[in-house]
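Dear support,

I submitted the protein below through the web form. The confirmation email said the job was done, but the results page showed an empty box. After a refresh the structure appeared. I'm attaching both so you can tell me whether what I see now is the final result or a partial one.
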Amino acid sequence: MPPREVLLEFISDNPDRASKREIAKAFGLKGDTRVELKDLLRALEEEGLLKKDRKSLSRPGALPPVTVLDITMRDKDGELIGRPAEWPEEQGAAPAVLIRQPSENRGKGKTPAAGLNDRILAKIFPNKDRSGPAYTARVIKVIDKRRGASLGVVHKLSDGELRLLPIDRRGEEMVIEHADIGDAKDGDLVESEVVRSGRFGLPRARVLSVVGSVGSEKAISMIAIYAHGIPHIFPKQVMDEAEDAKPATMSKREDWRDVPLITIDPADAKDHDDAVYAEPDPSPDNPDGVIVTVAIADVSWYIRPGMALDREALKRGNSVYFPDRVVPMLPERISNDLCSLREGEDRPALAVRMTFSKEGRKAGHTFHRIMMKSAAKLSYQQAQAAIDGKPDEKTGPLTDPILKPLWHAYGVLKRGRDRRQPLELDMPERKIVLKSDGTVDRVFVPERLDAHKLIEEMMIQANVAAAETLEKKRQALIYRIHDTPSLAKQETLREFLATLGISMAKGGQMRSNSFNGILSKAEGTPHQVMVNEMVLRSQSQAIYSPENIGHFGLNLMKYAHFTSPIRRYADLIVHRALVGSLGLGEGGITPDEEAQLDDIAAEISTFERRAMAAERDTINRLIAHHLSERIGEEFEGRVSGVTKAGLFVSLPTYGADGFIPISTLGNDYFIFDEAHQALSGEKTGLGYQLGDTVDVRLKQAIPLAGALQFEMLSQGKKLPTATRSFHKSGHKSGHKSGRRGRPTPGTRPPRGRRR
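What the results page shows now:
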C-alpha cells in the first residue's frame, strides 16, 4: 500500500485516473491489498480529504475533469489564463488554469480557437510545473464568445450625471460620460465595457448596445438571458431550415392513427410532445395485467446531425422556462407545429408499448415508429375532474373508454413504484402568475393531482424502457444518472438529524428507501420541512453521462431521458440511438455523434445548470421587485439556510429568500455550528437553527440584483445541548454585533435538483 500522502498526491495529479480500479493498477495492488485500498479510500473520504463523484475520486476543491472556464487574462508569455465560471466563495480564490491551444491545430477543426473573455468547456489536467497555474486545460468547445461586456441599467441622477447600476450583486456602480451613452436612455438595460478603472473614484463605462428598457414587459427575464449567455435568437439559416421542413412521410412507419392516444398537459401548454393510452392485456398468461402505450413526438425525423437546426439545438441544450416567456430549444415551426401532437392531426412519433403484471412488474416492451392522431387534448385539471365525477362536454365521452383505463393502469404502475421506493421528497414548487405589465400578480403552490403523477410515472417507465433497449442492442447512449450522496454529506446529515432525535445508519450503501424512512419519522412534526430540505441538500446533482451508474433518487439501474425531445437535447440523442439501433428508418445516430457523446453529455449538463440558474435569478428579481414597495413591513418566515456569515430566511408565501447578516443578530458573539446548522450566542446560548419559524422585517430590496435583506425580530431560542456543547470545542467562527457579515444580501442557500 502506498502511504496516504502519496495516494493523495496521485489523485491530485491524475484526476482522469482517479477511480479505484485505476489507482490499484497504477500501484500494482492485487488481491487482499485491493480491499485495503478500498478501506483506506473510504477512510480518506470520511476524513474529508477526498470526495467521490460518480466512480471517480478527487481532492475537495479540485476542479472536475470537465469544467466550464471563463478566460480572463493573459500571462507574461501571452498565454491565456482561465478560471472556473462557478466557484464557491467559501473555498477562497478560484484556481488559475492555463489554456493550451497548439498552434498547428488552430483553424483546422481539431481544437476550437478560444480568446480573451470567451467562456469555454475544457478538459482539465493538473499542471506538472508547480511554478505555474495549478491546472492546464484543453478546449473542448467555445460556449460563448464574449467581448468583456457587462450588463447594467442606466440611471440619471438629479444633477444630470449618468451612472451604470450593476445587475449582479458582486457588480460595481460605474460612471457614464454623456459622450459614451449612445442611444441609451434612463432606465435602459445595456451592455457596456469599462474604459477606465483607477485606484480612486468610480470606474468609467461606455455603452456598447441597448438591450431594452427595464420598465418594459419581460425585461426581468431578459436580464437573466443576457447575464447567463443563453442563446435566444435563432440564426437565419436555422429559421430557414425550420420553415422549409415538410411533414413526415409514412416511410417505415406503422399506422396507429386509430389508436386513441391523448395528451394531458398544463392548460397553457403550447407544444405537446407526449401522448398516452392504456388497455387491459388480453393475454391469458397475464391475468389482470395492463398494456401502457407512450408516444413521443418524432423530432429525430426533422432534426438531423449536421443541420444548422441540430447545431443550434446543441448550443442551447434545453428550453429555458421563465414566468413570462420560454426560450425554446427549437423554433416554433418545429416545436409548436410539425412535432406537436395536436388533436385530430397526423403526427409522426416514436411509441413504446409496455406490458405490466397486476403487481406492477414489467413483462416486456416494444418500440415502434408510427404515425398517430391525438384523440384529445386535455389539461391535468380536466382529466382529474372527469375521474372525480365532474366531466365536461369534452371529457364526458372519453371517461369510460380512455380515462378510466389510464387511471387503472396508473394504479398498477403505482404498486411497482411503491415496491421500488424512489426518494419521496415533499418539496412543493411555487408558481408565479404575472400581470400584463410583467410584474407579479400572485404566487401560489399548484395542487398536485393524480393526473400529474400518472403522466410522470408513465414517462419514467418509458425512459427505463429506452435505456434497457439500447443497452440490449449494445448501442452507445446518454444516460440520466444520479449518484449516491457522498460520505461527507451523509455524515453532515447524520449529525444534524441526531439533534432532532432521528437516527441514521452509519456506513454501508445508502438506498433511497433509507432516506424515505427518515422523512417518514419527521412527517407531521415541526421539523418536517427542515428535514426534507436537509435530505435534499445531501443529494448529488443529477447529470447526463454515456457511462451508467444508475439513478439513485428514482432507485433505477437503467434510466435515459426519452420523453421530451422538443425541449431536451439528451432525449433527441436517445431517439436517434433507438432509430439507428432498431433499424427504424432515417435520422439515426451517426458514428461521429457516438464518438462525441462524452463531450455532448458534459455540455448539456452544463447548459441545464445554466438554465436552472437563470430561472432562479429571474424569480429572485421578480419577487424582489414585487416586495420593493413593502420596505419596513413584517413577515413570518422560516430559517432556510445557516452560514458563518448569517441566516437565510424564506417567506413561504412568496418562495423568496432574504439574508440577515450575523452582525445584526444581537449583542453577542454568534458561533456557526455547521453540523447542527445553527448560529448561537456564546454568552446567552440563544440562537437560531435551520427550520426555525421567525418574524422578520424587510429592510432592503434590490430588484435588479434579486436581493432581499431582513432584520430579525424574533428572539433566539435555547438550542439543544448537542449544539451548545460545540462552543467548548474551540472551533469558533462568528461575529459580534457591529462586525460585517458576508455574503451580500440575496445570496441563496443550495436549492433543488432536477431528475
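Response: this is the final, complete result; the empty box was a page-load delay. The chain has six domains: 4-50, 66-140, 150-216, 236-477+555-615, 484-539, 631-735.
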